[in-house]
Write a structure and sequence with these properties.
The complex is a heterodimer of chains A (about 650) and B (about 350).
Chain A lengths: L9 H15 L1 H18 L12 E6 L14 H10 L4 E3 L6 E3 L2 E6 L5 E6 L13 H11 L5 H10 L2 E8 L2 E6 L16 H4 L21 E7 L3 E6 L12 E6 L3 H10 L4 E3 L3 H6 L6 E16 L21 H10 L2 H7 L5 E3 L25 H10 L3 E2 L5 E3 L2 E2 L1 E7 L3 H16 L3 E7 L1 H9 L5 E7 L5 H5 L26 H11 L3 H18 L2 E14 L3 E2 L26 E2 L6 H6 L11 H7 L4 H33 L1
Chain B lengths: L1 H23 L5 H29 L4 H5 L7 H10 L6 H13 L13 H36 L4 H14 L3 H15 L17 H39 L2 H8 L4 H28 L4 H6 L5 H10 L3 H29 L1 H5 L1
Helix pairs in contact in B: 1-9, 1-11, 2-14, 6-7, 6-9, 6-11, 6-14, 7-9, 8-9, 9-11, 10-11, 11-14, 13-14
Classes of the chains: A alpha+beta (about 650), B mainly alpha (about 350).
């Protein structure tokens, strides 16, 4: 037919190609220059400031930062940033969570345990140069204790008992509490500059962007882009000495695979939020260290233990079978927790038991082996049969003409719960319980729980070093309030209510030390015996990082597999991280970590360190050797590969 | 499947042209024609506004409760939040507020970011326009060119190869192609970045900054260009083939015009009309971003923003984003209508 003729349509061709060339041609050319910079981060052992700057530490995370206003932030990354921009009065210690001085250098309490005096550090400056005094501290807490305010609701766990805050000197603050409150030595509340925040009224606070936060912390925000990154620079005049890294970046990855690739390439230095599969894929990558760190998080199968409001008025439509402790125990025996750990968590976790996780050994109650609900479907069958539930048609148990049929809900956002659900439903079917499953949005689930319209659901909690809040979740006062059709949910999502438990909860508030530890253990024992929840798993936080570029991590708790970053309400490593090959200055250490990996073990660390068993050390040593060999092998392969590429 | 969809698009385009002709029948002037079109666009936009408002009010879940997620709140505090965000008012009053505020350009305060919705959307608008806009221009130009070349020389090796490749690309999910490119060009060989818009820690300023931006733009742009190129190419090819046997082409050749001239001056302008409709319709969707590609490449655009807002759920941002998306599609439709009036004499004169 028609023959093509190239000459006349050159214009169209050129137009198309020129546009395409804009990318296709410049791309590789650019890449050549840019990737050279990127790889140089890996090849230079000594920190020479390149285009990126060797002392720029990049943290990749699958979560994002919502904003810079500490009163309204909600994501874990938000709090990671606030703890670096602002100082608290004190910190949970790196070694054993004991309170350590930060802005407050010391504190004392009156004989009647009701008046606390705090001595504020001298010579501290806000990042805009204004001196920080007791006035700022008093202002912050005065703001936080206004009833019914956004500020109060954000910090209520710390400030609920404070009735009066007064500045008694340029560097002293006094706080009065309504009843003895030993936790006044753990006030993890960001101290805000009065000269900035006094211009933000209570009305404006929930929509205040705080785009250039003025803080006193070790880092200063230089840029915040929604869904992209938060860039920070070291505070050169930080009272504890300038941090060892000059720039810190929190980079958002919406694609976790890309995050793993970025760590492998050395584009980022730390990867948070990787799935087990991606975490495993980084095994043996030279320069990358994998840390399977136990965390404060756990997941549970919660039961409707007979939903009632705070006024003991029954609500909702929960199956009454679950108010029977035998049914709850039977379900618990039917759960194969080790299987959930290996199949759902990919091995990154451990079977769950009591509500204060084992990373807080001071508080954790470990039930004796004889009393644990180990996987035993035969025993579950036996309990149900003894309880009068006879096997009926279709393999569903029946009692008094009613089928044992339960609804199982979970939030569809969580890949973990999505994976847990089929296992649980299968195990319960096996012992004659009919399970109807529904995945829904978190907000719908919250409302259904608040209204008592559920039987069982899968969800989880993250427990802070001070377990007070977690324990409060199971008190009678946390049950729903209000009136139909939509009740106001409290924190209780099991509707557990036990007078003895409530008594102990109040008691532990005014106790300290070993006496409190005992009461906290007793409370867990009550919960474990009664099982308003069947804990499924304690979750680990798989953290992967480049150990060939930066050093100085200060894990919390202080073990080889402690949390490196994203510690439980703590920020130890950031102040001490530094490029490999540089030595820490003394001041860094005073302000920063108490003990970093690789540094000589201090006297206090020895006691915590000894909890690491010999077998574990052996295992780690073996792993290091194997990793080292694997690394060597890969380096050799890699260098061969790059030689090929050069040709 | 793809063929059926294309035919559908073509039929729609033809129908559109038919309607234009109908509207203009009776000798109505161009001005009146324009007036009707602009007027109907405004009415459509208003309906979108109404629908938008009520859609988000029938969704389950208590917004105030979501707002307070992560904090302990008493009933009094909940009431305070309801008051701050105007959630406690009766529905008609809320609707009136919403209309007044929207016309003042105030789209409310984001539940998630606690800043103005227009600010949130504004920050994601530029990345989206850059990525989806560039790739739309590229896929249009390249696609139409391939379509012309293939259609004019139907059955040639070029035509056969390009049609086969086009069908493959058309069937390819963009997130899959994106992951493949990432694995090859960011992992196997570290030539392109793993995601984001700038190098981590800032991509520099001035020319270096632009270089850095283009470097980050390359992979996601290639993905979107390849995936959408096929659509334009196939539409252009088939509409050109429709024109091949036309009498006017025979006349043109009889006049002694060179083959290329016949194609450029006579065939292509006529065959281009369905493509223009398609291009304009797709331009309307540029704004709504490309959720999957933006997710694969951590590109902070509007697609990603609306996906996050849906998960939160951040109703004010969703409302604002939907309004913007609808307005963009309506505007693109209007422009397509007007452009066809100018380009197609049949529409103009009826």
């Amino acid at each position: 037919m028609h023959r093509s003729n190239w000459r006349p349509n050159w214009r169209l061709t050129a137009a198309g190609l020129a546009l395409c060339a804009g990318l296709a041609a410049t791309g590789p050319a650019l890449a050549a220059t840019t990737s050279a910079t990127a790889t140089s981060r890996l090849s230079t052992a000594s920190p020479s400031p390149t285009a990126h700057g060797a002392a720029t530490f990049v943290v990749g995370d699958t979560g994002a930062v919502d904003g810079m206003n500490p009163y309204v932030g909600q994501t874990s990354l938000d709090f990671e940033v606030y703890g670096l921009v602002y100082d608290n009065l004190m910190d949970y210690g790196q070694l054993n969570y004991s309170p350590q001085p930060r802005l407050a250098t010391s504190w004392s309490v009156s004989k009647n345990q009701l008046v606390w005096t705090y001595h504020i550090r001298h010579g501290v400056k806000w990042s805009d140069g204004v001196p920080l005094t007791a006035a700022d501290v008093a202002y912050t807490f005065q703001r936080d204790i206004q009833p019914n305010s956004v500020e109060f609701s954000d910090n209520s766990a710390y400030v609920e008992n404070i009735t009066k805050v007064t500045q008694t000197g340029p560097y002293t603050v006094q706080m009065t509490v309504s009843k003895p409150t030993p936790n006044m030595d753990k006030l993890i509340v960001p101290i805000l500059p009065k000269h900035i925040w006094e211009h933000v009224s209570e009305k404006q606070v929930s929509s205040f962007a705080n785009s250039n936060p003025v803080g006193s912390g070790p880092f200063i925000v230089t840029r915040f882009n929604i869904n992209q990154s938060v860039d920070l620079r070291a505070n050169p005049s930080y009272w504890g000495g300038k941090p060892g890294i000059s720039k810190l970046v929190f980079q958002n990855f919406t694609n976790p695979s890309a995050e793993a690739i970025a760590l492998k390439n050395g584009s980022i230095d730390f990867a948070e939020g990787l799935t087990p599969a991606l975490f495993n894929s980084l095994k043996g990558v030279p320069g990358v260290t994998l840390n399977n760190a136990p965390s404060g998080n756990w997941d549970e199968l919660a039961f409707n233990n007979g939903a009632e409001t705070v006024n003991n008025k029954p609500i909702g439509n929960g199956n009454p079978a679950l108010t029977d402790i035998n049914v709850r125990h039977a379900i618990s025996y039917a759960l194969n927790r080790p299987e959930l750990v290996s199949k759902v968590l990919g091995g990154y976790g451990s079977p769950g038991s009591t509500v204060v996780p084992p990373i807080y050994p001071q508080f954790h109650y470990a039930p004796p082996a004889s009393a644990t609900y180990a996987y035993d479907p035969a025993k579950a069958d036996q309990i149900l049969t003894a309880d009068g539930w006879k096997m009926g048609p279709g393999g569903v148990r029946v009692k008094n003409g009613k089928q044992l049929s339960l609804r199982l809900y979970w939030g569809s956002d969580s890949p973990t719960y999505n994976a847990d659900a089929p296992f649980i439903s299968e195990w319960l079917s096996a012992i004659g319980i009919k399970v109807t499953v529904t995945a829904m949005s978190d907000s719908t689930l919250t409302q259904d729980i608040g209204n008592g319209q559920y039987d069982m659901f899968i969800w989880g909690w993250g427990v802070e070093p001070n377990p007070d809040f977690q324990l409060s979740v199971f008190t009678c006062a946390q049950r729903s309030a209000g009136s139909p059709p939509n009740y106001t949910p409290g924190w209780s999502d099991s509707f557990f209510c036990d007078k003895q438990y409530d008594k102990l909860y109040l008691a532990q508030k005014s106790l300290d030390g070993a006496a409190r530890d005992n009461v906290v253990r007793q409370m867990q024992q009550i919960l474990y015996a009664d099982e308003p929840y069947a804990l499924l798993t304690y979750d680990n936080d798989p953290q992967a990082y480049r150990s060939d570029l930066f050093t100085g991590y200060a894990p919390q708790p202080d073990t080889r597999n402690g949390l490196m970053l994203f510690q439980e309400v703590s920020w130890w490593s950031y102040r001490c991280l530094r490029p490999v090959g540089t030595s820490p200055s003394l001041t860094d250490h005073n302000a920063g970590c108490q003990h970093e990996i690789g540094a000589p073990v201090q006297a206090e660390a020895a006691s915590t360190g000894s909890s690491v068993s010999g077998a574990m050390i052996g295992g780690i040593a073996a792993a290091v050797v194997i990793l080292g060999l694997a690394g060597l092998f890969l380096v050799r392969r890699r260098s061969a590969a790059t030689a090929d590429e050069r040709e | 499947m793809a063929g059926a969809m294309l035919e559908g698009a073509l039929a729609a385009a033809q129908e559109l042209r038919g309607e234009e002709a109908g509207a203009a029948r009776g000798g109505a002037g161009l001005a009146r024609n324009l007036g009707i079109k602009i007027g109907s666009a405004i009415v459509t936009l208003f309906f979108v506004l109404v629908f938008n408002f009520f859609l988000f009010r029938v969704l389950p879940a208590d917004p105030a409760r979501n707002l307070a997620r992560g904090t302990t709140l008493t009933a009094t505090q909940m009431a305070a939040i309801n008051k701050t965000y105007g959630l406690g008012l009766p529905l008609p009053a809320q609707f009136w507020n919403y209309l007044v505020q929207t016309f003042h350009g105030n789209l409310g305060i984001s539940f998630e970011y606690h800043i103005g919705v227009s600010q949130v959307i504004g920050s994601a608008l530029w990345p989206t326009i850059l990525l989806v806009g560039t790739s739309t221009v590229l896929s249009t130009v390249i696609g139409v060119w391939i379509g012309i070349r293939g259609g004019w020389n139907r059955g040639s090796t070029f035509d056969k190869t390009s049609t086969a490749i086009n069908n493959t690309l058309y069937a390819m999910p963009d997130f899959w192609l994106g992951m493949v490119l990432l694995i090859v060009f960011a992992s196997k060989w570290f030539i392109f970045p793993e995601g984001g818009m700038h190098s981590f820690g800032g991509g520099g300023t001035g020319l270096a900054g632009i270089n850095d931006l283009l470097w980050h733009l390359t992979l996601p742009c290639i993905v979107l260009t390849l995936v959408y190129l096929a659509e334009y190419s196939l539409v252009m090819r088939s509409s050109l083939i429709d024109e091949l046997g036309s009498d006017y082409l025979l006349t043109a050749r009889a006049k002694g015009l060179r083959d290329a001239m016949v194609r450029r001056r006579h065939a292509v302008p006529n065959a281009l009309l369905p493509s223009i409709t398609l291009i304009m319709l797709n331009l309307g969707f540029v704004i709504s971003g490309a959720i999957t590609t933006e997710t694969v490449f951590s590109w902070p655009g509007l697609g990603l923003l609306s996906y996050n807002a849906l998960n939160f759920p951040d109703y004010p941002v969703l409302e604002g984003a939907f309004l913007l998306f609808s307005a963009a599609v309506i505007a693109a439709n209007l422009i397509a209508d007007l452009l066809l009036t100018v380009l197609d004499p049949r529409v103009r004169q009826a």
